[in-house]
Amino acid sequence: MIRKLEVPKELGDTAEVRVLAWHKREGEPISVGDALVELEADKAILLISSKQTGFLRRCFAAEGEWLKVGEVAAFVSDHTDEAVPERAAQTEWMMAAFETT
Amino acid sequence: MTGSRPSGGASLNAVAPEPDAQIASSDEVIEQLITHCWPHEAVAGGAQEARRRAGQTLERLLRAGLPHARAAEGSERFDPYAVNRALCARAGEPCDEAWLAWQETARRNLRALDGGPHPMRFRLRREWHALPRDNPRPLSLRLPLPLREPVRNLSARLLEPAGALVSLRQEPGRLELRVHPSAARAPVAAEVAFELDARDSDGWVEPASASEDGDALWLAPREGAAVCSPRIAALAATLAAGAGDARPFLAAAWDFLFSSFRFGDVHRAPPGAADPLAAALDAGWVDCALGASLLIALCRARGIPARLVSGYLLAPGLPAFHSWAEVRLAPARWAPMDLAGWEACGGDARDPVWGQLFFGRLNPRATCEIAPRQFTGWGSARPPRRWLKLHRLAEGGLEQSLRALPGGELVQRDRVWAEKVSRAPADRHAGLAASAVGR
Fold first, then answer.
1. Distance of residue A99 Cα from the nearest chain B Cα, in angstroms
2. Which of A91, B34, B168, B221 is at 20 to 30 A from B74, Cα to Cα?
3. pLDDT tens across B116-169, in order?
4. What is the CATH number of the domain that holds A74?
5. Distance to chain B for A53, nearest Cα, Å
6. Number of domains present in the structure of chain A
């Protein structure tokens, strides 16, 4: 199954965030607890970690680029051979943990 | 919109404190008054006299009814912002000695670097006192760097605790220090220093963005305190009504801001407030960032791209963090609009020397943030929801303490130094030398 990772609203009063660092590369396997990506607004840094296993399949913003709150930041899949749909496709949400660091 | 100022000698109701911001001792208030009114006298050997004057000023304000609280042990506690506003309102007496000293200090600082460019050395020491302690990952701590002004002889080091630095990275507008999480158990301190040529500016040429965001970024109806509320939109429509060009509108907005507001320290609306400018419009008080945000909101309401810019004024001995606005007047030209001249002209925009001083031009400064996308950022140091800043002279520079409200806990303390240097620079590289990284 393909699942989406959206930019969460945990950064408070902000409309967009900058991708500080991806901790996984496209195609890499993901384990529970793995750090995926750090997002930044002017007043906080948010670390997103996985709460499920899978593979990081597609990142929609490079480090330094901006994403709007609610935008799809990445797709993950249960298996490596699943076709990755268009960014706007309706998919389930991936299970992730958000913490300000 | 009130549209009118408190009258001279106004009641101190105009400067009412916020009760939970009454955290400063009389000594702290006196130190802060010195930075505003007699800093040059104090550093030139007159510290005792400056303190005497500041103490007399506080006593006079108290006699005039300055609100304050009493701590459990009986000592007086003040909202330092209310004290400063009391002076800027000239609420003590007509021709208030302290206000005149404040104004003279502002004028001296604003013109301290005339005739540049001047080679200068800037140094900032930052202490973080409230870091998350339960975080297993390296902490991200930030120090400011100029975005526009080329720097040389850049150096940075972690001062405390020794050995905790994991990595140091130079990015636009900042240095990022990654520090071992165990460091959060004690205050962390780091320092950045560099040289730059301090020069005036009359604007900034920047190619128009080709991104899909385009002007949307500079016309956003809500960004920080710059919120285009219906009230702002209605106000903007009255300024140079019918003018198709940005210039007459800007001139009208400038006159409106100078004539309708007083400039002084104000407590900001908490993040997420529906209308962060409402209190400013009601009370007629703004600080630099709030006044700039008001101008930005007015511009955006008229379809004129505008943005908030921040950095350090470089007056030798008294460098200070400051915010101003930039307004796009041509496809690629951003004009600076800085309300800092208010103190120098006492709010009279018609003053031939000071009233238009920073309309479209700036004195020397280090530009460190261009909202919304270029910022130093807080990193792992989470800002308190409400706070105030206290200033004092320290070790030949200016110290700024950020304290959380309510309670007054110290969150962050900066000491900033700026001085002219005469020697030719040895290192013209902007990059951070690896050998400069302290551990």
1. 10
2. B34
3. 899 999 999 999 999 988 888 899 999 999 999 999 999 999 999 999 999 999
4. 2.40.50.100
5. 21
6. 1
Classified as helix, coil or strand, A91 is: coil
Alpha-carbon gap, residue B259 to B347, rounded angstroms? 6
pLDDT by residue (tens digit) across A51-94? 999 999 999 999 999 999 999 999 999 999 999 999 988 899 99
Residue B308 with chain A: CB contacts under 8 Å: none
- Report ipTM (2 d.p.): 0.88
Handedness of CA B370, B371, B372, B377 (dihedral sign): positive
Domain that holds residue A30: 2-100
Nearest CB among B223, B372, B379 relative to A45 is that of B379
